[in-house]
Amino acid sequence: MRDRPRQHRVPGLSAHGSDEPGPSAEGVYALLRTSLLAGLAIAALVFPLAAMAGLSAKAGFDSIDTLSVEVTETDPPLTSYVYAADGETLVSLFYDEFRRHVPLDEVAPVMQQAMVSAEDARFYTHNGVDYRGIVRAMVANNSSGGVEQGASTITMQYVRGALQLNAESIDEVIEATEQTATRKLREARLAMAVEEQLTKDEILERYLNQAYFGHNAYGIFAAAQVYFSKHPSELNLQESATLAGLVQAPSAYDPITSDQSRALERRNWVLDRMVDIDYLSRGDASEVRGLPIELAVSDPPNSCIGIQGTPTEFGFFCDYFRRWWREQDAFGATPAERERELRQGGYTIITTLDPELQKTANKHVNSAKGQESRLAHGAVVMEPGTGRIKAMGLNRTFSYDQKHNGPHSNPSFDRKGNYPNTVNPVLGGGAEGGYQAGSTFKVFTMLAALDAGYPLDYNINSPNRVATSFVSATTACGGRWCPKNGSAAMAGTRDMWSGFGMSVNTYFAQLIDRVGADKAVEMAERMGLQWRSEGDAYYASEERRSGWGPFTLGVSDVQPIEMTNVFNTLAAEGLYCEPIPAMRIIDPHGKELDAATPRCHQELDADVARAATDAGRCVTETERKGAQCGPWGTSRVVGELAGRPVAGKSGTTDGDRASWFLGYTPQLTVGAFMADPDYIFNPVGKSNTTKSKETAGKIFRDALKGVEEVKFKPPSHDIMYGD
């Protein structure tokens, strides 16, 4: 047995009103063995209906020492705390049992005194079993004819709880809690063994962190938070007495219910017990006895739902984080195991979320007026070079309460829609599909061309309509795919600068024909796109992708977060980083894990990325020295609002079913979109096609206000002019 430190005493107060030592462990063993008086008293009087057979076998005398070691090493479920990037703003908690371990010196001394008074007055003198308590319970229960008092010490209660926490089956849980003499005798033996291995300080600390106080509050930290919105170190006398009185029967003495009479009676009983063992003077007790129970109840947020069940502005980011966690092999073999680890592992997680930037994104996606009742308007903000997600704004409320939602916009669905409340991953992160992104997909054709050696000044005569070599089911152009431009003014000889800036369909239809559709599809995969529908997977298959010419016009479904990351890679000059919502992950032992380390690799040649950026600036800037941007750019409003150079691409789909803008500076990437997530065939309407551009421009303006401008690095002469 290791050396035991000095026993704990609550500072400044007598431990129990008497310095009379308790019996030795050997003495208690002898008492139990010679006559089974204590064991039989417990069985016959505390549990009068318990069967008496098989006591010694079930008590497990030969394995007590081994089992006691396991009992001292419990690993209870702990709450995981998720914070914003500042390390202070709480995003959410994740827990099955709201519990957080606190050391004993962070529990108010008066709370320690109250708990000892209520549960085990001779805690500091007995060796795990209180023989006086056994006699007291025997007398009380004989007098009442029932079970009025138990004989369990704090150590025995800790043992019982530890056995439940360590149980690996329901049978073991039952064995740890069943009302039998066998269980009680084994519990007593284990308690005495534990007292030989842990100090009183250690036992009390473990017990305070294990006890259940009702309202899903496990342990003193959770109890102080739930009932009084305090840290355990801040608890006063009346609060401590109230909490100590709950442990015996949390539901019966619940002070949150409308009638507090039983809770008040129980609290005052604890005060009397504190007086009896000299923890408290009668005068001080009388002052508190006359006070009502004053609560400051809090309902800790859980699983991305806010305090007291209210929605949180961080909800969609939080849900993306949860989905991301479920995909990380470091936290378990299956998604279910990983989520259980999040809810029970006691992690401290510092996310990538910028609270101020989140407020900015939310402000602008909600201020864009339109057909809000069905159209989702959202924005994702990312950091180039790390893949860190800084904000996820959406004109929806993250909430499970959909009873006040409007009707579903799909006419074939007779149910509520997802506005204003939803928990659907509209911005991405789930297995669900996405939205067609229109002309933003031209970036993949341009990157494939640049990667294959085509220069930015590669000219193609681009009429208003052009027939390609790609086979089409339509007969308009003799069975060939023959797209046309958005307006006749786009026609003419174009290069990548003007073709991209003006979004000339016929230029990119011919460019993908020459470069190869398979190369454009491959480029999209390299940049992180997944095929989210059966149709997309069919056309993207190895044997069919070379014939998928319409891919360049954005006919594939994509999620906002993965499309934003495509442009985030360009902002980082070809450094591809997986989207990541976590910056630091710390386990309950203080060890920082590497699961939040950015996962980046150089996917594109830096000069290719710089060339794409140079063409992307034509989208937002109409006249730049040294660039042939053409007479206009499709998203000039973004540059005007941002007040600094921005590269990017806008996109709308056939029938205006969705509108997008994806853009970046060297410091920040913003992806904004608008669509109907309930019924993607509904158009956003012509009046809304500029909303995403305006929202992105305003986010750039506000997020970068006061931030020094960083210049884009120009591409090489060769990749611009090919000579």
Features:
alpha+beta; elongated; 723 residues; 27 helices; five-stranded mixed beta sheet
Describe what this molecule looks like in 3D.
By secondary structure, the protein is an alpha+beta fold. It is built from 27 helices and 18 strands. The strands form six sheets. It has a five-stranded mixed beta sheet with strand order 2-1-3-13-14. A five-stranded antiparallel beta sheet has the order 5-4-18-17-16, with helices on both faces. Strand 16 and strand 17 form a beta hairpin. Helix 4 (64-71) packs across helix 9 (181-197) and helix 7 (154-166) packs across helix 9. The N and C termini lie far apart (83 Å).
Strand content: 5-15%
Number of strands: 18
**Net shape:** elongated
Mean pLDDT: 86
* Main sheet makeup: 5 strands, mixed
Alpha plus pi helix count: 27
Helical fraction: 25-40%
The radius of gyration computed from the alpha-carbon positions, rounded to a whole number of angstroms, is 34 Å
Gap between N and C termini, in Å? 83 Å
Q: What topology, given as strand order, has the largest sheet?
A: 2-1-3-13-14
| Low-confidence sequence ranges | 1-62
- The secondary-structure class comes to alpha+beta
